[in-house]
Structure formats: C-alpha cells, structure tokens
C-alpha cells in the first residue's frame, strides 16, 4: 500500500522536474541563468587549461616541458586551444615563461614563473587528503573499485598530488590495490584492499545543523537537501508542493549497497542526486565538468542522464556552459561567487586565478622573466 502511494506521489513530483525540451542542447539553453556563477566561470574557463599545463610541468623531472609537446593533437584536444599553444602561453606571462633550451638546436622550454611556482606548491594536494577522498569514491562504487584513468581525469578537481598513483595508491597497499582491468586491456583498476569503512555523507552534516535549529521540521529535513534557487527564478505554488513531496521521498545512502527496490525510478533518481551531491562535496572547489563526472555513471550505478539530472534540480546544482564545457556547481557551497568554507588549496587557486586574469597587465612584476618573441 505504501509503495503504491509513494509511486503515485512520485509520478506527480516527476512532472515538476521532467525534461521539457526535445534536445539536451535546448534543455541547457532554457535553464534559468545565475549571473554570479556565470561570472565566476568567465575566469575559470581560462584557469582550467592553465592548471592542466601546470600539472604537465610539475610532472616533468626538469619542471619544464618542450613547447612542441603542447602542439600535439592530444594536448590541443585536452586543452581545447583555438590558436595554438604559443599564443595560449603568451596570453598568461605571469604564469608561464618561455626560455630557449640550453642547447640551441632543441625546442623552446615552457617553465612556471617564480610566482606561479610558489603557488603550485600550495595547490598540490596532500597524501592524507587524497587517501580519504579516494576511499570515499571507492565506497560510492558498488564494486568498491574504479578505473584508474577516471581518477586521473578528476585528480585536479579532487586535489590529488600530481604523482598520487605512486605517492598515495602504491604507498598504501593495506588500503588500495592496483590491478589490470579484466574487461579492458592496457587499463587498471583501483580497488579497496580492506573492508569498506563506515562513511557519513556530507549532506548529513547539513541535516544535523538544520535539525538543531528547526527540530519541528524533521520530516522536511530527514531525506531533504538544501535548496537555493537562482535569483529571479519564480517558483509556483504547485512546484513548491511537489518539491516538498520530493524532499520527503526516502532513498538509500549513496554509500550503502542499494536494495533491490532501488529499481523504482523515484529511488534511482534521488540516490543519483545524493551521489552527485557527495561527489561535488569531495572536490576542492565544489565543482566539476559534467563530462568528467559522467565517466563514473556505470561505477556508481547511475542510470539517468546526469546533465538532465543537474538541470532537473536547480536548487541543488547549477550548470554553466561557459568555456565550451558544461560545469556543475554545488549551490549550497557558494555565497556571492565565493566558497563558504574555504581551504588552503582553494585560496592558492584563487591567487593563481588572479595571475591568470592579469593577462599581460603588469605581468613581469613578479615573474622575473622576459618572454621571447619567438
């Protein structure tokens, strides 16, 4: 009887969130814009490729890379460069310096400026933090294992050291195991080498705080999520009613093995929201590219289109399409375009973002280098 009533209620709730447009592109275009996040992404769209090049430089034993390396098709595709690597590097002289190779017959080398190099030491993640976050990600997976390449894709967002495979996974054999992927040749799996620890989702902390101040609203909070809608977004009375009913829908914890009843669309969708919420809570800046998160769909047993999932819940997530990429933010983590609970890595990245936004204005004040013309 309860399941029939819940299913009937959910059919009405899903009508509030279901996709209204015929294509995903139209659905993205029709979303309610939040100018605060859009302005933030204006800077981030340049910071993201800058961090990728920085990681390449730090991974090199000489802390430099040859300029032609960035001209390879793979690098151009990764960095999404429109006008080539040389133009890109010269656009940020406060971050990168180009120096002739000591042997003139070899190509120009790309280095970090002294200012960017100092920040890079602060931006690089720590092993203890990486251990905790990798453990949590593995616990989110039903098989307690993830493809190594997927972890590498999000290493920047999760604040892993650039050498985390050696410094974190290999050095903690009692926690993690690295093995060949039997389903895909030349790929590896990272698995938990110990029983899954008890893990508390980040949303539970919000619920405890809310219950402390609003004990009378326990039914609204027990299975609910923080809802912060974009400025100017009008919510009808019917929408608010359906949203309140959705907040009351039970679902399994993202860290628990879902019961067989999770096949119901209501539980599938709410559990997917919980997993995405938890994943974003683990990131340094509470944001990630939708494409990168999509690589975890199978491991996390998410059977829904994740882009539509983010758009269906504008009070929890915000999706930006700036910089030729779709990026999703966790709304509750931000206030006026800044992270509410700051951390040293985030602060260092904000300082690097300042260097990026400087472009060529006062670029050489702290760099100590002159950039060659060719």
TrEMBL record:
UniProt cross-references to InterPro entries, sorted A to Z: PORR_domain, PORR_fam
Domain (PORR) spans 32-360
Superkingdom of origin organism: Eukaryota
Molecular functions per Gene Ontology: RNA binding
Q: What PANTHER family has UniProt attached to this entry?
A: ASSOCIATED SALT-INDUCIBLE PROTEIN, PUTATIVE-RELATED, PROTEIN WHAT'S THIS FACTOR 1 HOMOLOG, CHLOROPLASTIC
| The protein, known as | PORR domain-containing protein
What organism is the protein native to?
Platanthera zijinensis
